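Run log, item B.
One chain of 276 residues. Sequence copied directly from the ordering sheet:
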Amino acid sequence: MAGESVSQTGVASTTAMMAACGRGWHLMAHGHGAALKDWLAWPLVGPAADQLMGQLNAAMGRETVGPAAAWVAIRARLVEDWLAESGASHYVILGAGLDSYAWRQDGNRTVIEIDHPASQQWKRERLEALVLDVPPAHVWAPCDFERESVADVLGRIDLGRDLPFISWIAVTPYLTPEAITATLRALPPCTLAVSYCLPEDDWTGPGTDPSKMFKAMTAQRGEALVTAYSPTGFADVLRDCGFEPIHDVGPEDSLKDFGVEAFSLGFERLALARKA
């Protein structure tokens, strides 16, 4: 329902479903050449996937949806590559949404999904409908973000002895700067993959009009984009919160690195940082 959040509707958020649809769409469009082979993304969304992608195609056109979906898949691929390189035994996903890494991973890494209880319940019902068991090392960590902090939730979880890897993707644009810095400061020593969006004044090129449409669409559905940073500005925020920036990447290198063209809605970028 337009204008309502997951806490009001008891279903996965629109942006979480869009992200899963994007990963699934990218796999169907590119097959073996896909940057990320997320075989579970489309089934996890379920019957709503066709309708949602139909709405996006009608609003933006297939020539726009394809590159935008490619970035969503590449974004996830980069995070999972960085996770593998880190060697972390515990993977924490803040605002996990419909992420499917726990069911796709080859090893036995502990995956801890932190999200709103209603969103997690919806996801668990979808997994049951697909007859998919929850992996033994998987941890559901419900968090009502309006009533408790991420630090409180993490404090109840055994994160092992090595630095955990934390993913915080497609969340910061929907939060206030104060909420973003509070969360970053509350995170324990870790390796962090986090995304952010550029200010609208810096939007140029083929992704500009689709990004404006996306911004209007998410606002109408109660998930407005409210905070943006420049790359240097976000690096400063990370440093102020105890992190050392390592990488900052966007979709501009996707053709060279993954063989597909991509752009990000909201001109999203992805940063890697570490808090020792």
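Observations after the first pass:
- The chain has twelve helices and seven strands.
- The first strand starts at residue 90 and ends at 94.
Flagged for discussion on Thursday.
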